[in-house]
Amino acid sequence: SIVLLGEPSAHVGASEYLARIHGLVAGSPPPVDLHGERALIDGLLDAIAAGLVHSAHDCSDGGLAVALAECCIMNRELERGATIDLSAWSALPERSLLFGEAQGRFIVTTTMPDTLLRIANDHEVPAHVIGQVGAVGAPLQITTGRSRIVAPLDRMDEAYYEAIPGIMSQAATAALSDQA
Question: Which of 80, 86, 115, 133 is the most buried (most CB within 10 A)?
């Protein structure tokens, strides 16, 4: 199971989304709730100590959608998709839900979601089962309540792992043609 610790928000200020998609460096960064952050970390550490956590990934740079994509391709030898349902937050703007960089959120995978939810509740941390880990090679599928996104792993892998080699190759080609 895939569990979201913390809550999405409508905040997109100072996000990678604004910078990359709209070319804007604008807005204030998301507010920080130090008490909530402490509770989240304490709950996550308790879940790890109890052997409940298979993987954990923060939702900082790029937001929830980017964190989910990174989780799917983090093991290049065994990339797995996921089926995610975020329709519980359909009242939020999709760009905020998917790409907002609000503080205090982790994606956790576990085989014991009920126990993990209980630990989160004990720490007063919002926690929601949002999906399931998919098969090797399956795509990342995200349902928001308004739309469905299907992202093939090979495209995410190439975009993530081949970006710098691609840029270096283009630079080398340009340098060689300048010399000719």
Answer: 86
Q: Check pLDDT > 80 for residue 42.
A: yes
Orientation angle between helical segments 153-161 and 163-179, nearest 10 degrees: 50
Residue length of the chain: 180
Rounded-to-integer distance, Cα 130 and Cα 116, Å: 13
Task: Provide the 3-class DSSP secondary structure of residue 90.
Answer: coil
Residue 40, classed as helix, strand or coil, is helix
How far is the C-alpha of 102 from the C-alpha of 17, rounded, in Å? Answer: 12
Query: What confidence tens digit (pLDDT) does each residue in 69-83 have?
Result: 999 999 999 999 999
Coil, helix or strand for 43?
A: helix
Give the global pTM. Answer: 0.88
Rounded Cα distance between 101 and 165, Å, is 27
Give the tokens for residue 70: 């990174």
Residues in contact with 94: Cβ distance below 8 Å, sequence separation at least 6, in sequence order: 144, 146, 147
- Between CA 32 and CA 70 the distance in angstroms is 24
